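All the exercises in this workshop are built on plain-text protein records. A record pairs a protein's sequence with a compact description of its fold. Read left to right, the backbone structure tokens trace the chain's path through space. Once this layout is familiar, the rest of the handout is easier to follow. Here is such a record, shown just as it appears in the course material:
>
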Amino acid sequence: MTLLRSGSATDTGLVRSVNQDLAVETGTLFAVADGMGGHAGGEVAARLAVDTLTVAFGAKPSGTGLSEAVNEANRVVFEHSMDNPELRGMGTTMTAAALVNEDNRDVIALVNVGDSRSYRYHEGELTQITVDHSLAEEMVRSGEISESEAAVHPHRHILTRALGVSDDVAVDLWRIQPTRGDRFLLCSDGLTNELDAPQIAEVLSTVPDPQVAADLLVRAARTHGGSDNITAVVVDVVLDDEDSGADVADDGAPAVAAVAAVAADFRTAADEPVADQVPGDDDIVEVLPGPEPLKPKFRDRSRARRKARRAARGRRLITVRTLLFVVLVGAIVFGAYFAVRWYDTNAYYVQVNNNELMIYHGRVGGGVLYKPVEVERTGVTTADIPAYAVPGLVTGIQEDSLKAAQAYVAGLVATQHQATCAQNPFAPACTTPTTVVPPPGVTTTTKAP
């Protein structure tokens, strides 16, 4: 028997006026939908999709049933848009996971359409299971752009698949063998646009409660920019089926191992040389002969002349060429010294010391020629900042200037204050105007709770 535990969180973000994301969290079914198509259209599409998914999967709780439920959700959203001209063009992404029993064993069936993602945190490693159905991702798979270029590409938000935009849609389906200790994350692109994989893995690996982990992920994405609606569902495998075997993929559907293999193939192909760069049979390399060896007689005569010149004027111990070489080496050594010292001293960082946030001048961990120097005790403790920021501060957060380091600390304090007041608006610190002390050179502002 497999036992799951879950938690979910969602937020409108700092730019959008409404939240078009929806999360599903039941005992065996979990999903995230990210609506699109204007104010009303996105909300309607996401709501129709998750309601239809829940009912259709309940009637057929299997891997195939989950895939068919997504197709049914697509049909309902599409027909509704056709019946309502003001909703034409609406649609939604959908990623969902469900615990099902097939062939007398428990498996996690997982489906995806669009650019909402599902991850698996297994034995200390975070793996992205789903593949984004976006134009930028298609360009990555075809080798036109790199993954780093895709992250900032102007077409990264153009989807190649979504629910409700046509009468039919292809659904990716995986079957994954759950293992005790596994953690699954389903999220909208509002989270992955703001947090990278190491940041996500840090929360999933250090926060044991799934609800708290979901809250922290959403709050961190909001703090990092919050340019879109943000939704996260965290699902933990508390107890697994001890009689289960290895992962099994549906016919024609990729398994997690298959996805990793495809990624490896792309990396290998990118590293291989282009065929046109290899010389063909018609390329001729001509080896030119070198100069003929000097005759012994000429060699002896030349050596005799050199001896005579040295005997006449004395041998010079330091030649012009030697002097230039020494000067050049010295210039390189001094240049390297000043470059390294400039690098070591041209930075500041924030680090926790005895539960207090300290600002140091230098590089995290010290430099080759310069040890960090304490420049400011902020008076801020780990109790005054969000919990998710503490692991990074133990190592040290690098900033380009003292002002930037001070602004980073002030931002953490402000974020924690907002979170505290959101949970308990009648706390003493929230019932009176709050003065946020900025770094030097920035005007102090007062904010009502």
Observations:
- The two ends are 48 Å apart (CA to CA).
- The longest strand covers residues 91-102.
- Residues 345-447 form one domain.
